[in-house]
Amino acid sequence: MIEPGSASVCVRDLAKRYGAVEALCGVSFEVRPGEIFGLLGPNGAGKTTVLECLLGLRRPDSGTILVEGADALDQSARARLKVGAQIQLGALQDKLTPREALEFYASFYGDHAEVGELIARFELTEKADAPFDALSGGQRQRLFLAIAFVNNPTIVVLDEPTAGLDAHSRRELSALIVGLRSSGRAVLLSTHDMEEAHRLCDRIAILDEGRIVATGSPGELIARAKARSRVVIRTARSLTEAEALTLPGAAACRVLEQGCSIETEDVGGLITALMVHLGGEQNALLDIRIHRPSLEDVFVELTGRRWSDADGRSRP
Fold first, then answer.
1. Could you tell me the residue range of the domain that residue 205 belongs to?
2. Which of 81, 110, 143, 222 is surrounded by the most beta carbons within 10 Å?
3. Do residues 20 and 42 touch, judged by C-beta distance below 8 A?
4. Which of 203, 223, 243 is at the close of a domain?
5. Which among 122, 124, 114 is positioned nearest to 151, based on CA atoms?
């Protein structure tokens, strides 16, 4: 039996099988009020299946989901009142306007948000009476997010919310998502974009082949990684591997075509020693770049595969 405690969403031992394929195997996590929790994984990892089970769109083979204490499987009507969702590949009739769409969805709820407030909040005022087929990708995503708020939810579920958007629209939508956290709502966000997960999420569960392989804040997950920082330099005269490895803090070196890449656990100490060395050799520093360990390094260590390889695999 799951004790809900202070969690808005509590998922325990969720399992789902399609024939011989385990889409989900023992998935467990919690989402707290005022938190953006990310399900991060390559395409086919099982993220959408988790969200579909939570929303009652798919029944798991086993496991338990509590939504503010309500069993999402056996008390689905009660649980759905607490949740607003924006799912992938949303669409509306071409000539339906944002105002009409919001009024239509609001009619399903006795207690619903005021349509005019939603239009203003999600920056749809100028397009409130424009047909859906005239909206940009970013405007459509803001409309779907507004629809998710029609029932005044305390939990918001977002499935790849910025997928397919241009950079400007992604920034706008990301700002709206961050605003949800400040309102005290629990946000469950799925994404296969590592940079987005790092930027938006308070905590992340890394999902791979239907299993959660790690959970924590982005900083915590990266701090656990064994990967070192890399200092990539370009100098007037290229450093040899032996020369680079004499620098204090240098753990490994790879000579590049126009410079070298030095691995270190002490970036500041290495750069200080490098500048002293170059000054003594009268060798000019032309360029320097610092690459810190990333969530991709975490994924590689946990799975033995690069993210790009895993993201290209196909699973149900």
1. 9-82+154-223
2. 143
3. no
4. 223
5. 114
Q: State the pLDDT confidence band at 313, using cuts at 50, 70 and 90.
A: low
Residue 1 clears pLDDT 50, i.e. is over it: no
C-alpha closest to that of 83 among 159, 1, 24, 178: 159
CATH of the domain at 184: 3.40.50.300
Per-residue pLDDT at 270? 95
Rounded distance, CA 230 to CA 248, Å? Answer: 14
Indicate whether 35 belongs to any domain: yes
Closest alpha carbon to 192 in 295, 99, 284, 109:
295
pLDDT category, 44, cuts 50, 70, 90? confident
Q: What is the pLDDT of residues 259-312, one digit of tens each?
A: 999 999 999 999 999 999 999 999 999 999 999 888 988 988 888 887 766 665
Same domain, yes or no, for 233 and 219? no
Q: Is residue 89 in a domain? A: no
Q: How far is CA 62 from CA 11, 15, 69, 212, in A?
A: 11, 5, 18, 16
pLDDT at residue number 310 = 65
**Nearest one of 55, 140, 57, 68 to 97, comparing CA atoms:** 140
The upper half-sphere exposure of residue 17, i.e. CA atoms within 13 Å in the direction of its Cβ, equals: 8
Per residue in 166-183, pLDDT tens? 888 888 888 888 888 888
| Residue 189 within a domain | yes
Q: How many domains does the chain have?
A: 2
Whether residue 200 is found in the same domain as residue 183:
yes
Q: How far apart are CA 227 and CA 40, in angstroms?
A: 20
CATH number at residue 273: 3.30.70
Within-domain flag for 26: yes
Residues 33 and 162 in one domain: yes
Q: What is the pLDDT of residue 311?
A: 64
